[in-house]
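#struct-help
A.M.: can someone run this one for me? Single chain, 466 residues.
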Amino acid sequence: MKDQFQAVVIGGGPGGYVCAIRLAQLGLKTACVESRGTLGGTCLNVGCIPSKSLLNLSDEFKKAKNLKSKGIEVGDIKLNLSKMMQNKDKAVTILTKGVEFLFKKNKVTYFKGVASFHSDKKILIKDDQNKEIIIEADKTIIATGSVPVSLPGVEFDEKIIVSSTGVLKLEKVPSKMIVIGGGYIGLEMGSVWSRLGAEVHVIEFLDHITPGMDKEISSEFMKILKKQGIHFHMNHKVEGIKKNNSGAIITTKDKNGSVKEFNCDVALISVGRKPNTNYLNLQKIGIEVDKKNRIKTDKNFKTNLNNIFAIGDVIDGPMLAHKAEDEGIAVAENIAGQSGHVNYNTIPGVIYTTPEVASIGKTEEQLKQQNVKFKVGKFSFMANSRAKAIDEAEGFVKIIADAKTDRVLGAHLIGPHAGELIAEIGVAMEFGASSEDIARTCHAHPTFSEAVKEAALSVDNRAIHS
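D.P.: on it. Structure tokens below:
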């Protein structure tokens, strides 16, 4: 029957659509259900892709304003925000349509609508016209992603109090923006609007930004962002947000108990995300979840029900698109009888500011906590000829290796194209390479990648250019 499938994926984001395509490649009759109306999930529609578009365009705008100092004289530089937003939206449309094409190419059946479990093997789909159909699935993969978390008692209006979704659609540059939360998303979006002319303040509960990242990188990152004009208020807890005629007033309390108020046009709440599972009827079929409402799975992504699996942001682990993609491929291969797996020690994290920040593997803090002896090699982009030649020499590369075996345990970068450079270290770690293996690999000159080689040399105190 046309409404019976060997596998159904609920959610068409990076984890879901990749999983569906791989299932189809492996010969399973596959369907994917997506509620948004376009494929690609948060990442393509209101996350990774539109934010990177604005990060790139805002950076070009800022660079264009400084061309005169580099010997390139142009006329007045003006911002046309509506055209910039159109450019962003165009990129999103092209990529989401591209995923639809991949579904057709791989013969994946695509249902538009909200899916919920009618039973463990029957899925109810309700479209935007409230029409309902039920499809049957031998295996179901939950890949519904996550949604932004707000503060207690505070609702997003996506105009004044905005989430990561609303901040991508502002119709004018705010005079003053408050970013609540010093993590990846808040700092990226704060950077965008700061470059376009907003006065940006970041309020963070902890004493450092980018929680969980290598502390040395985190400190350097904050110094650079301060130089770029972003203001930081650390050890501040938000007590409340009230809207008024001109925007909002945010009340905070610092670690000493002092109360402070911040006025702003726009408040971006960027304090994390939570699994998007409310409408699935998980309780009805008995799917087990943890205290954070994440779906419990075993190492093969199987839930407590043998025919239902879960991947991506709805389960434990970093909420990253590429983590979800790898899990999508792994679970598809497991369902097809192969041996899919994900190496969680080599999942990189990247912040796409200028300069970029990238991290993979263990931090110094984690290794000290685990009583693992290690060596550290560092190399500054100030000593990298390519970075100096194009005036992008802020930051450094840091490689951490096991003290006895020299095996690379982690790497942390801040600098130009850090998000691309981290891939070399990821491959090295996947193959169990030592820092010497990286150091003995010939790197082209002049390139940013030479900083990675020099950091590897530095692990053994033999860097050449510093």
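A.M.: thanks! The mean pLDDT is 97.
D.P.: also worth noting: The chain has three domains: 4-147+274-342, 161-271, 346-459.
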